[in-house]
What does this fold into?
Amino acid sequence: MNKTIKIMAFAAMCVSASMGFVACNDSDDDEVVSKNGKYVVNLGITGADNVTVYYTLSVDNLMGETISAAGQGIEQEGYHDFTKGGSTVFSIGGMGVNECSGFVRDAEGNLTMNGNFVFDNTLNEIVEADGNKMIALDMPGNAEVGTNLTFYHVNQANCSIEGKETSISVAPMNECDWPSITGMAYSRGYVYISYMPMNSNTYATEFTDTAYICAYSYPDMKLAAHIKDARTGNIGTWNASNGIVKDENGDLYLMSSSAIGNGFSKATKGAAFLRIKNGALETDADYFFDFSAATAQIGLYRPSHILYLGGGLALVEVSSLSDEEDARWSDLSRKTCIVDLYNKTVCEVSGIPVHNGDGGRRFAATYSDGYAYLSIQEEGGRYIYQVDPKSATAVRGAKLSATFLAGLFAL
Amino acid sequence: MKITLMLLMALAVNVVYAQSSTGTIYGRIVDSDGQALYPVAIAVEGTSVGTQNNADGTFVLSGVKPGEVMLRFFILGSQPKQLNVSMSASGKVDVGDVLLEADQTEIDEVMVVSKSAARIEQEKAFAVSVVDLSKMYNVSAPISKLLGAESSVRIREDGGMGSSFSMSINGFSGNQVKFFMDGIPMDNFGASFSIANFSSNMAERIDVYKGVIPVALGADALGGAVNVVTRHNANYLDASYSIGSFNTHKVALNGALTSDRGLTVRLNGFYNYSDNDYKVYAQVIDLKTNAKMGNKWVRRFHDDYSSKGMRLEIGFTGRSWCDYLLLGLIMSENNNNVQTGATMDAVYGGVETSSKSLIPSIRFKKDDIFVDGLSLSVYGTYAAVDNYSVDTLAYKYNWLGERIATNNRGEFALNDTKIMSREWQGIANISYVINEHQNLTLNNVASTIERVSHDYANPNNVMNDIEQNLSKNVTGLGYQVKFSKWNANFFGKFFNLKTSTYKQFDAYTDNERWEKVNASKQNLGYGAALTYFIIDDMQLKASYELSCRMPEAVEMFGDGLLQKSNINLKPEKSKNLNIGLGYCHLASRHKISADVNVIYRNADDFIRKGVSLSSNPTTGYENLGNVVTKGVEASARYELASAWHIGGNVTYQKITDEEKWVKISNSYVGSTTENITYGQKLPNIPYLFATAETGWAFTDVVAKASQLTVDYSMSYVHEYFLSFTGLGSASTKKVIPTQVSHNVAVGYSMQNGRYSVNAEVGNLTNEKLYDNYKLQKPTRSFSIKLRYFISR
It folds into this structure.
C-alpha cells in the first residue's frame, strides 16, 4: 500500500467515524400532554448530577401501577414549592429567581400553566385569603438582611401581584430571637403567622416554652395582636409550613411539637394543640389538646406534619422517638395517625409501615372523595398510600418514580 | 534537499573551573529568529557521549574528554551538522547560542520537516492535545478560549471577559481537572492569575492531558490536566495591544533578556478591561407589578471587568552550575461586576467580586548533577490570595437598569466576604537516565494551604475566622522505556492528605465547645502509557490510569457547625482508558495528520452532598454515584507548506448515570432508593461538538519579508438538555440549542513578524450563543490587535 492510499484510507476512516457519531443523535421521545385527570402530582427528581428537577403531572388514578415523569409532565428547574389556592396549583421558585406560575385546567381538562411574575425574594409562606386572593410573606433571613416584612397580594384567577406591603416591621416577632416562620393562615379579616425563635447564626432555639403567633389585619396587614400562650411550646416546626390548620368554621388549630427531630435544639414542653376561634385575637382558653397525654399509652408521640380533612379530623405524621433517641432535624421513625381535633383523640393508621419523614418541606398530601393520600418512602421505592380516616386503615397504591413528592393536589 | 548550516559562536567561550578529568559543554541551539530549536540530538564524534537538548534549546553535554572534539548536531529530517570545540582540561565550556540557520529559499521545507515541540509532545504515549501557541501569537483571544478548539475539551462561559468559565475534559470539570504552569499546580493562584486572563503571547504551548497524567504533573486530578508551558526564549520582546467591541482593551507585554553571563530577566505582563456591555435577549420585569414583560434585546449594564498582572523572574540560566535558577514574583488582581445569577432571569446591579494574588517563587534546575544523567529540578512558591465578594444592596434591578428598594439587603445573598488563602508549595523532580533506553522519574509535590473567611455583613456569623487547613503530598514514581518503534511509561502515585479544621461539639449544651479536628487520608494511583509506531507515520497509543481526587476539608468536616462530618469519605476515583491511532505524514511541501481516539471513563465515589428525603440542613458529604463515559474523538489537519492549512475535530461522548440505587441519609426504613435516572445520559453536558479551521498565508505582499494571513474558524455544539433527556414532556424541556459560530481574522505582518496587525470578527453571523442555559455570550464583536516582536 503506498502512502497516498494509506493517507486517503485513514482520512476516510476519520470522516466516516465522525459522520457516524453525528448520526447517532438521540431522537426525542413522543410528547405526552398532561391530560385530564383528578390529581396534580409534583415529582421531585434528584439525578446523579445532584440537581433536582420538578415534573408536574396530571394523574387520574393514584392507586395504579407507577406514576412516572418519563416522557410526560411539565418540567421546572431550580427549587420549587407547590401550594393550592382556589382552582390553581401555584409553583414558586426557579433558578436564581422566585417565579410564580399557576397550574390550571383548561376547558378540556388539560393541565396548563398561566400567569407569570416574580417575587422579590424567596417566600416564607403563601396561603389562600378571601375573595380569590392569596397572601404571601417574605421575611428577611436575619436582622442584617432586613427588618421589615414584605406581604404580597396575589390574584388567584390571573396569577398576578395586585399589591405589596413593605412597611410592616418584623417586630415584635423578633423580641426573643430571630423568627423562623412555621405556618400561616387566613381567617375572617386576619392573617395569623406562627413562628419559632431561632438564632440565625447558631440555629439554637432557646425559647421553646411558649407558643408565639402574630395576627395582622387583612388586607392592610397592620399588626393586630401578638399572641403568646405558655401552655405549650412553639407552634409548628422549622421550614415545614405545619403550624396552623383551619377547619370549616374558620377556627384555627395550632400544632406544637417542640421535638428535637423536627429541628429544635431543645424540647421543654410536651406536644399539644391550641385553638384560635374564628376572628379571635387570642388563643381559646377553653381548648387545650394535650397530645403527649393522649399518646402516652401508645408511645408519647410528637406531631410533625398535618393535613386537615374535615369534621375535626386531621391526618397527622408523628415522631415515635423520644427526645433522647432523636437527633436534631433527623425526622426519623414516623407513624401516621388520624387525629380528632374536636374530641382530642389520636388513632394510629394501620397498614402504613414506620417510615422516614419529609421534614423541612411542605406536607405533600391531599384529601379527596373521603380518602387522604400521602406518600411513604420504603426500602426500594416511594409509594402512595390511601388512608380511610373513618377506619384509620391504609392501602398502598401507585409507586412514584421520584426522589420525593413535592406536591399532591386534587384539582 | 540542501540546507546550509551556519554555526555561530554568539558568546565567548568561557572556561570555568575544573571538577574532574572529563568536562562539560553547554549552550543553546537557536534558529535565525533567536527561537529555541528543539529537539536536537548532540553527540561527540567518535565517542558514546551524547544528549538531547531541552525544549528551551539549551543542552548540557557532560563526560567530554579534554582536547579538540567535534560536536555533531542531529536535527530531524536533515543532515547532521558539526562544530569543533576545544575542550580544556579544566572542564567547562560554554559555547553560547549555536545558530542553525536554513537557506532562505527553502525555509518552508525546513519548517515542515522538523517536528515542533508541540508535535514531539503529541507523539508521547499519553493522550495529549497540544495547543501550539507559537502559531497563534497574533490572536487576541485569551488562552482559555484557545483551549476550546481541542477535541474532548469544552470551555463553558457565563458571558464575556471575566465571566466565570469552566473547562471540561470528557465531561469532567471543576476540581476534577487541574491546571499547571510549567508543571506547577496553579489551582490556588487566585482568580486573577488565571488562563482566562493570559494572552496567547505568554506561552509556547498548552498540553491538555486527557485522563492519564504523567508523573511530573503531581496532583490529584480525576479527569485530566492542563499544563501551560511558558516561553523560554532567551532574548525577546513581545508587546501587543488589542482594542475591540464592548470597550475591550488588552495589553500584553512579554519578554526576556539574558546576558552573556546567563543573567536572565523574564517578564509576562497583562492588562485586560472590558465593559462587556453587549446586548442580550432577556426577560424584563416590571419592578412595580413584578410582572414579566416578555423578552427584549437589552444592554448589559453591570458587567465591566478588569484584570492586571505580571510574572517577573530574575536569575541565571544556562550556567555550568545550573540550567536555571530563577527568583520569581507574581502579582495580579481583578475586579468583576456581576451582572447575572444562575440564569439571566436573575439580574444584579451591585454584586461585585475581586481578587488579589501575591506569589513569590524560586526555581532551580540542573541536568547531570553529581552524576551524568541525573537531573534535579525544584520549585517553591508561597501564594497569598485574597478573594472578595460583595452583595449588600437592598435593591432589585431589572434588565432596563431600573431599580426599586426592597426590604432585603443582598440581591442574591447578603455578604461582604473576604476569603484569605495562604499556600506553601514545594516541588522536587529527580530524573535519572539509566541508559539510552530507560529512565526513572521521581516527583514530589508538597503543599499546605490555610483558608480563613470573614463576612463583614454578618459579623455574628459563627464561621467567621474559622481556620481550615489542608496539606497534600503527592509522590510519583515513573519508569520510561524507549526504543525506536515503541516506548512505554509505567507510573505509580501516592497521595497523602492531612486536613484540619475546627468543629462545634455538644452544641446547645453547657458543654458546647469548638475543637480542632484532624483527619488524614492516603490513596494509591497507578497507570501506564504505551505507544507503538506501526509504520513510521502511524502511531498506536494506549494509556490507562486509576486516578483520584482527594476530599477537601469542607467535604470531610462539613461547615463546622451544622453539617455532619464524614472522615470516612473516600477519594473520588476514576478508571481512565484511552486508545488512539495517530497518523502524521511529512512530505516535502505537505503535512497531513489525523488522530482517532477512543475514550472510556468509569468514575465513582463522587463526593457530593448526601441525598436526604427531608431538607435536612445537617446532611454532610458522601461518596455517591457512578458515571461511565464512552467517547470518541477524531481530528485531521492538512498543511501545504506554510501557505494553506485546514483542520478540524469532532468529539462524541456518551456519559451515562450507572448508579442503580441511591443511598439515603438519615433513613429509618431502607437505606437505598431506586435511582430514577439510572442508565440515562447525564444532562447539561455537551455530547457532540466539533471545530474546524482553515487559513491562508501569502508572503511578501507589498513589502519584502511580510506576510498576509486570512484565517477562519468555526465551532459547532449540538443541542443538549438542561435536565435528564427521558423525563418530562418535550415541549417543556429546557434546551441549550445547537450552535454554530464563525470567526474570521485577517492579519498582516512585516519584517518577518516584527510588526503585525490582526483584525478579527468574532461570532460573525451574530448568533445568540449559550454555553449555559439562559446565560448569553457576546454578540458579534470586532477587535484589532497590534503586536511588536523582536528577538535575538
Residues 229-791 of chain B form a domain with the Maltoporin; Chain A fold (CATH 2.40.170.20). Chain B has three domains: 14-103, 113-228, 229-791. Chain B has a mean pLDDT of 87. The helical segments of chain B are 107-113, 117-122, 143-147, 553-557.
